[in-house]
Amino acid sequence: MNFDLLPETPSQTAGPYVHIGLALAAAGNPTRDQEIWNEMAKPGATGEHIVLIGRVFDGNGHLVRDSFLELWQANHEGVYDCAYDLEKPFNGFGRTATTFDAGEWTVQTVKPGAVGKQAPHINVALFARGINIQLQTRLYFEDEVEANAADPVLNLIEAVERRQTLIATRCEVDGKTAYRFDIRIQGDNETVFFDF
């Protein structure tokens, strides 16, 4: 059988199906009680509470308003906890989606600690229309200059200027410390993606 002639099925591409099953509120559907969403850190979580914000752009510079992101990270001490529990004040895994109006995603979390020799970072998986396999990238923090300079993963990127596509810029949102991380799927300043 020649599999090259078979077209893609809905299960082989991310959008808009991912919103229907995983980003219920963004799709206009009722939410579930046990939802993994964008509040990775609740008020009782230890560590520096931060807000992550960003947008996703396609190769033409247009907003991708129906993208979906999964984030996983270490806690403020640089330790990964694989046991997910909605009752815990902090979980190292969360999900978010860009909004259909402003095209922006947000996450409430704590700033992660360094993991071994790696600078504080957050792992990001991007799902969007036209992408059959999610794109893997990382978010680093601009105020971790020394740690970023020594990070072994960042240093694998030979083009030094491209490393900047992984650096989130510090800002403020409603009086809270925030970091903006825009992702560019293609084109000028394309975000560095990894093959993990």
From TrEMBL:
Domain Intradiol ring-cleavage dioxygenases: 52-80
Top-level taxon: Bacteria
Keywords recorded for this protein, A-Z: Dioxygenase, Oxidoreductase
Gene3D superfamilies registered for this protein in UniProt: Aromatic compound dioxygenase (2.60.130.10)
Gene Ontology terms for molecular function: ferric iron binding; protocatechuate 3,4-dioxygenase activity
Pfam families reported in the protein's UniProt record: Dioxygenase_C
PANTHER family linked to this entry: DIOXYGENASE, PUTATIVE (AFU_ORTHOLOGUE AFUA_2G02910)-RELATED, PROTOCATECHUATE 3,4-DIOXYGENASE ALPHA CHAIN
Protein family: Belongs to the intradiol ring-cleavage dioxygenase family.
Protein name: Protocatechuate 3,4-dioxygenase alpha subunit
Species annotation: Geopseudomonas sagittaria
Lineage of the species this protein comes from: Bacteria, Pseudomonadati, Pseudomonadota, Gammaproteobacteria, Pseudomonadales
